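Example (one chain per record):
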Amino acid sequence: MNKMSIRKDDTVVVLSGKDKGKQGKVLQVMPQEGKVIVEKVNVVSRHTKPRRQGEEGGILKKEAPLYASKVQRVCPKCSKPTRPAHKVQADGKKVRVCKKCGAEI
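Predicted structure:
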């Protein structure tokens, strides 16, 4: 299992590929594969067949997973892409901190 610094509901920016520069919210994290699904990024067309009576088939648009190394966390305070640093608080709790501005993420 890979340790990932990106979690669900984080805002990330895409670093490479066809969607380079796009920002979006992380919908799902897959630590076993090292991938994430980001809202409105890496949208693919899926051809589906109707399975049940009354269900519609056709071409559906959905987000496909992309490697977590291709995205970087965006700080909510300074809105810059950053790798999160880890800081241990006085009560022993470990928190993620922005390396650019020092704000708690």
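Caption: Strands lie at 11-14, 23-30, 35-38, 43-48, 58-63, 66-67, 71-73, 84-88, 94-98.
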